[in-house]
Every structure is written in structure tokens, then in C-alpha cells.
Amino acid sequence: xxxxxxxxxxxxxxxxxxxxxVFGYPGGAVLDIYDALHTLGGIDHVLVRHEQxxxxxxxxxxxxxxxxxxxxxxxxxxxxxAITGIATAYMDSIPLVIxxxxxxxxxxxxxxxxxxxxxxISRPVVKHSFLVKQTEDIPGxxxxxxxxxASGRPxxxxxxxxxxxxxxxxxLPYAWPDTVSMRSYNPTTSGxxxxxxxxxQTLVAAKKPVVYVGGGAINAQCEPQLFALVEKLKLPxxxxxxxxxxxPASHPQALGMLGMHGTYEANMTMHNSDVIFAVGVRxxxxx
Length: 287
Hints:
This protein is α/β, with parallel strands linked by helices. It folds into two domains: 2-174, 3-Layer(aba) Sandwich (Rossmann fold), CATH 3.40.50; 193-279, Rossmann fold. The protein has helices at 6-17, 31-40, 51-65, 77-81, 83-91, 118-122, 138-150, 193-205, 215-219, 223-233, 264-272, and strands at 2-4, 21-24, 44-47, 69-73, 96-102, 128-131, 156-162, 172-174, 209-213, 237-239, 254-257, 275-279. Residues 196-286 form the Thiamine pyrophosphate enzyme central domain.
């Protein structure tokens, strides 16, 4: 079994997860991880000038590719600078894993230099926050973090890494988990057949139906099925901002975006409809 330091476990876990690119800004609490990035290789690091930019860049990668974006920031101000980007990803359901440095475990809670409660600060805008206290837990926690970020409704996950568990002088056996399971988290991904049948009957019987498409349709990669349904039933399609791209804008049935910045035809069709077939939307106040 391979013997690695905590910092090397972080990098090797990213490699085993299939991560190709990390966006970040170095700082004292995560310098050991940066050393491991250099020595182990296999991952392209994109250096930014501000941690918020790192999160937005990882967010853009996730939107464009469907992969989980990865961010690496240091403790204290590095972590807090990332919060705006994390909140953006949370509101838009974008899968991210944010690796944040933290002071040594023995100093947590004692107002140490560049200490902040990243788990507590990030809690309202993440799916979950992990504080890793043991070096040997790093691979398992990162496996869970990536699974959480991408499964169910996607979103950001924070992994807080105290400086002492990354110690390059401390080598422990490393093994990347084959599977992951969390007893308290088991998102439902299958629909109710009876409800689906009733919804279809209601849609077919409608006089003025409209399809309302959101970002969830893109996350679920259901564009082909959506296109086939619209073509078969000749339904008009309106979109939220996040749903743009789920249905071709050049299609005759496409009405454009809804809301105060949307098109007249999209808003009027929605206003006068008798049945709304909503796909991957959250009915927010802007639409």
C-alpha cells in the first residue's frame, strides 16, 4: 500500500477522482498541498489573483463540462473571500468542491492567526461542510465530497483541512475508496409512475400548454428527451435564465426567456396558459 503524507493524499485523491484542473491561490495553511501538486503532478493549477475569481472559474468549468469544479484556498481571508462564489454556485446548483486551509487542530477555537470557522460560515450556502481532523480520513472525506456535490441536486461542498494533518513528514497508508455511502443522504432520482401518467394526461388535454425549462434540465442532461416531447406535442417553450441552452433558441417553438428581462411572447404565453409543464425549475421571483 502506498505511503503518503496528508497533503499528498489530497492531491492523489483528486487525481484518482479524475480531476484535471484546480483553481486557487496559495497561502501558508495550504503550502504543503501546493508542494504536493508540484511533486506528484497530473493536475493543472490555475493561479488567480483573488479567491472569489477561483470559485467563479471553477463554477464556469462545471457549467461548461458537467464535471465537479475544484477550488483550493488558504485559511482565514482566503476562505472568506471564496464565499460569494460559493453562494453563487449554491443558488445555481453548480457542483463544486472547495478545499480550504485551516489552522492546526490544536489551535481551532483559540483565535489563532488567520483562523475562521469556515464550516459555520459556509453552512448556509453549501450542501455540506467537512472539517477533517485525521490524516487517514482525507481520501474517504474527499470521495464523499465529490459524490455529494454531483448527486441529487448539485451544489458546492467545503472540505476544511487543518494544517497539521497535511504534515509532509507524516506518512500513512493511502487507499482511494471504491464506493461511498452516507446513511443520512440518499437522494431520490426515480419518478412516481402514477404521477407521471397523470401529468402527461393533463398536458395532452390542455388548451394552452407551455413548457417552462430551467437549469435543472441542463444538470440532468435531458435535452434530447425534452426536444422529442416538444416536437411530438408541438408545445411552446419558455426558459429561465439558467435554462437557456436546454432547448434550441432557433427552434420555431422557442419563445425565449421569462421574467422582467425576458421576451414579451414568453411572458404572455405563460400568463395565458392553462397548464405549465415545468422541467428543472424552482419558480423563483425573477420569472
